[in-house]
Amino acid sequence: MTTFRSATVLRATAALVLLASLSACGFQLRGANGQFKMPFNSIYLSFPETSALGTELRRNLRGGDDVRVVADAAQAETLFDVLSETRGKQILSLNAQGRVREYLLTYTLVFRLRDNKGAELLPATEISLKRSITFDESQVLGKESEEVLLYRDMQTDLVQQILRRLVAVKPT
Predict the structure, then answer these.
(1) Which residue, of 6, 9, 104, 155, has the greatest Cβ tally within 10 A?
(2) Is the pLDDT of residue 5 over 90?
(3) DSSP 28-41
(4) Strand, coil or helix: what is 54?
(5) Pairing assessment for the beta strands 42-45 and 68-70 based on DSSP bridges
(6) Can you tell me the distance from the alpha carbon of 88 to that of 100, in angstroms, rounded to the nearest whole number?
(7) Tens of pLDDT along 94-121?
(8) Measured on CA atoms in the order 72, 168, 149, 140, is the torsion positive or negative?
(9) What is the number of alpha carbons within 13 Å of residue 41 lying toward its C-beta?
(10) Tell me, what's the pLDDT at 120?
(11) For residue 127, which of 157, 104, 171 has the smallest C-alpha distance?
């Protein structure tokens, strides 16, 4: 009985030592804490002022390391050109009575990244997100709220994908 206890205590101690050493090494995935090290110091975003996506991207860039988001393209080291930003909703499936049962929501952004001399750092890039949503005509208001939340979730996901692509850019 005592050998069983001592073996259990030894295993538990070994597991604790292993976990402590892993947590103390400081390993962390790049961008896991919401911070990204951008390869440029300033950026101009060509989103319209009313764009929710542009506002969220500005906020994430300003909250990061040392990147300045400037209002004048001439003062920026890097230019983020929005070529198109579209949201879509299409029928995904119908029920036996021919009424809509599911919709497919899409959010697509096409952009490119240039330096202040006009050289392309990132060619035209398309990021497209899709989510399906069930529909019930007896719960129209609730489904509209769910649709808004799904678009907001896609917008946050889109910003994170943009940030990861910006970090991977190699300046000339």
Answers:
(1) 155
(2) no
(3) --TTTTS----SSS
(4) helix
(5) parallel
(6) 16
(7) 999 999 999 999 999 999 999 989 899 9
(8) positive
(9) 2
(10) 92
(11) 157
Contact 41, 67 (CB under 8 A): yes
Q: What are phi and psi of 134, to 5 degrees?
A: -75, 155
131: left (phi over 0), alpha (psi -120 to 50) or beta: beta
Task: Report the mean per-residue pLDDT for the chain.
Answer: 87
Q: Are strands 42-45 and 78-94 parallel, antiparallel or unpaired?
A: parallel
State the burial class of residue 158 (Cβ atoms within 10 Å of its Cβ: 0-12, 13-18, 19+): buried
| Residue 17 backbone dihedrals phi, psi, to 5 degrees | -65, -45
Ramachandran area for residue 118 (φ above 0: left; ψ -120 to 50: alpha; else beta): left
> Is the C-alpha dihedral spanning 143, 105, 47, 65 positive or negative?
positive
What amino acid occupies position 57? L
From 3.40.1190.20, 3.30.160.150, 3.40.1260.20, 3.30.1050.10, which CATH number describes the 30-167 domain?
3.30.160.150
- Domain map of the chain by residue range? 30-167
pTM recorded for the entire structure: 0.75
User: Contacts for 129-133 with beta carbons within 8 Å, 24 or more apart?
Assistant: 129/154, 129/157, 129/158, 130/104, 130/105, 130/106, 131/104, 131/105, 132/92, 132/102, 132/103, 132/104, 132/105, 133/102, 133/103, 133/104, 133/105
